[in-house]
Each structure stands twice: as C-alpha cells, then as structure tokens.
Design goal:
Blueprint (H helix, E strand, L loop, with lengths): L3 H6 L7 H8 L3 E5 L4 E3 L7 E7 L2 E6 L5 E7 L4 E2 L2 H6 L6 E4 L3 E7 H10 L1 H27 L2 H11 L3 H4 L2 H8 L3 H7 L2
Helix pairs in contact: 4-5, 8-9
C-alpha cells in the first residue's frame, strides 16, 4: 500500500516513485499526544500540516474568552493557521490535538521550492487551496443562512465519523449553538 501523502496527491496528479521521494523529503514528521498544541496563539507558524493520523481542532478565542472552532482536521486533511503561515506572522489560532496525532509538516520555503521544481505540485497545491477557500466560503454562508438544525444536518451528512470522535460540546461550539440546543437537535 502506498504512502498516505502519495495517495492524497495522486487524487489530483500522478507521481513517479522518484517524484514522490523528492516531495516527501521536503516534509517533516511530527508526533503529538492528545491535548498537545500543534500551534498556539502568538507562536510563529512554520508549517502547513498534512494529517496522517488523529484529529485536531483549529480555534480562535475572543477577548471574552469564548472559543470559536474554525475547523476540525482528521486523516487526509490539511491544517494550519494559514494567515500566519502565508504571511510569516504570529498565530491567531490555537490548533490542538483531540487525539494522538501524526502530521507531515512543510515549511513555506520548502513548499515554494517544490512548486518551483515540480509543476505537478504547484498544480496540486493550487487545487487544494481553491478547495479550502470554497469550503471556508460554504461554511461562512451556512453560518449566515442556515438555522442550527440545518447546520447540524449538513455536518452530520458530510462528516458522520466526526460525531463518534468529537464531544457534543465541541460539535456545539463548531455549529455556533449551545450544548442544550445540540441535544435537542440530535434527538
């Protein structure tokens, strides 16, 4: 069976063994335990991260201390504080491990080098970035236009496994509803 990153890239573009080995050499493997932070607010964000194993939560905490969950990231997904990563500024988000996690991280310098060296990878990252932008736009529109029940049904339909891996409190936070409202929706 081929490497998970190779399978992921090859959903968009085929790779030779030599190309994949070259690509993989630009990534760094990190293993983190449940409750550890991949990124903490105020830190430099050095990598974009492909999730090999585990589940993470990207969130923002406002001035009143209320946490807003932007994203869950599980196997075969990417996660970072993209504003801080792209602009090489300090993180505004916290990304913490909800399970033990293994990620492959790539620095911005290494990603730019890979994109310059291999058109296939530039194409891959362009497709992934566009997909991420579209998903973010859909999420914003859903928060603006859908009621709590519709947002719950959409999340359950799109990511049913998430409900087995994440507490109801975190699901409620992601949907922007109270834990009590979520309990009513799930009945």
């Amino acid at each position: 069976m081929s490497h998970p990153l190779r399978q992921h890239i090859e959903k968009i573009t085929p790779l030779s063994d030599q190309e994949f080995e070259y690509i993989l050499s630009h990534f760094t493997l990190r293993k983190l335990r449940k409750h550890q932070f991949l990124v903490q607010e105020g830190d430099a964000v050095l990598t974009d991260n492909f999730v090999l194993r585990g589940l993470l939560k990207a969130s923002y905490t406002n001035d009143e201390g209320k946490e807003h969950i932007l994203q869950f990231a599980m196997e075969d997904w990417w996660v970072s504080d993209y504003q801080a990563y792209a602009n090489q500024t300090k993180a505004m988000l916290n990304i913490d491990c909800l399970e033990d996690v293994e990620v492959l991280g790539i620095t911005l310098t290494n990603r730019e080098k890979l994109c310059a060296d291999l058109h296939k990878i530039e194409h891959f990252f362009r497709i992934k970035l566009n997909g991420g932008f579209l998903a973010s736009q859909r999420r914003i529109l859903s928060l603006l236009n859908n009621n709590a029940s519709e947002r719950y049904d959409l999340l359950l339909h799109q990511y049913p496994s998430l409900f087995q891996r994440v507490s109801k409190t975190l699901i409620a936070s992601y949907l922007g509803v109270s834990r009590e409202t979520l309990s009513r929706l799930s009945k």
